[in-house]
């Protein structure tokens, strides 16, 4: 068992214990008002800025945000969620949060070069900052307290190994956001363990364009028998692309949503690499609350890993109930 994995388990367990403790903090019959507030931490109200690089309509971020909101509700936190897929724009949101004198910042670092200056300034100004989801190779140099996510290159290697074990011959890796270091790491990692893989760049905010680009590539290269996407919506678009191209290729993906879990169950998609986005959002907010109220840090200076794990036909039934609740 690796050090990172041990720390991930400890962090997850700590969050569960805190949640149980909060929920059991009062007993006996409750009024309607008390019931509504059950499980809320009895600590001063604090404000946390939650700043991501999400693009409009990407359902992955609904899961991250749900985790953050659930932790904020438990911890008596005013959660201010903002997003900008443009690196400099996201960096400006960090500076705005500092100017507003928030109590903490949770931020993604998918474009670390654009983020470094403002994130470092936030930490130097005394604002506690944690990172999540993107920037696993960059966060430690910015004064950030901790990181919650998966190592994308390791996840990519695991995906490539699974492609090989599935009997794939040639794969197309669909990158939906140029400049995102995590997405590049996924495809590069997959190529390390499955060399016959080709990248294609699409604009993730233009889903008809994504579908058309994948269709065209499949029509041009009949040797492609796997399409590896890096997000659930793009997997579903690729399912249609395969039909449009009259291709025999099969789809696998990173990340899930309710529709994607259903597609695995029905056999439209082979499998998904799950990094537990709900957990990333939850731990990011909860870790800031722990730091502000008790001086705790999580991870011991190392990333707290939330993935990767695989969801396929063998275990999809056990995940389905959580996907239906909007948490997987």
From TrEMBL:
It comes from the Bacteria. InterPro entries: Bact_Solute-Bind_Prot2, Peripla_BP_I, SBP_2_dom. The keyword Transmembrane does not apply. It is found in: Cell envelope. The keyword Cell membrane does not apply. Its main location: other. Residues 48-291 form the Periplasmic binding protein domain. Keywords: Signal. Residues 1-21 form the signal peptide. Belongs to the bacterial solute-binding protein 2 family. This is Sugar ABC transporter substrate-binding protein. It comes from Asanoa iriomotensis. The lineage of its organism: Bacteria, Bacillati, Actinomycetota, Actinomycetes, Micromonosporales.
């Amino acid at each position: 068992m690796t050090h990172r994995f041990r720390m991930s388990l400890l962090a997850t367990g700590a969050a569960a214990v805190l949640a149980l403790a909060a929920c059991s903090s009062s007993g006996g019959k409750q009024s309607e008002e008390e019931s509504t507030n059950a499980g809320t931490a009895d600590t001063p109200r604090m404000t946390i800025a939650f700043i991501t690089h999400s693009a409009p309509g990407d359902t992955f971020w609904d899961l991250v945000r749900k985790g953050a909101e659930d932790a904020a509700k438990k911890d008596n936190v005013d959660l201010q969620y903002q997003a900008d897929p443009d690196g400099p724009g996201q960096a400006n949101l960090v500076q705005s949060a500092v100017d507003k004198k928030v109590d903490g910042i949770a931020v993604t670092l998918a474009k670390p070069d654009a983020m470094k200056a403002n994130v470092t300034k936030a930490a130097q100004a005394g604002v506690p900052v944690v990172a999540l989801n993107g920037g696993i190779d960059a966060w430690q140099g910015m004064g950030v307290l901790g990181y919650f996510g998966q190592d994308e290159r390791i996840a990519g290697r695991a995906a490539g190994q699974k492609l090989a074990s599935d009997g794939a011959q040639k794969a197309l890796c669909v990158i939906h956001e140029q400049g995102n270091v995590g997405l590049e790491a996924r495809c590069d990692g997959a190529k390390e363990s499955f060399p016959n893989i080709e990248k294609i760049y699409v604009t993730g905010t233009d889903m008809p364009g994504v579908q058309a680009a994948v269709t065209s590539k499949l029509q041009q290269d009949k040797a492609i028998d796997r399409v590896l996407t890096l997000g659930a919506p793009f997997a579903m678009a690729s399912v249609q692309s395969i039909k449009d191209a009259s291709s025999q290729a099969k789809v696998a993906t990173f990340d899930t949503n309710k529709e994607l879990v259903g597609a695995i169950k029905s056999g439209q998609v082979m499998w998904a690499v799950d990094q537990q986005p709900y957990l990333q959002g939850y731990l990011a907010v909860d870790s800031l609350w722990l730091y502000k109220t008790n001086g705790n840090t999580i991870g011991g200076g190392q990333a707290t890993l939330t993935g990767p794990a695989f969801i396929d036909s063998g275990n999809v039934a056990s995940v389905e109930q959580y996907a239906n609740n909007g948490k997987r």
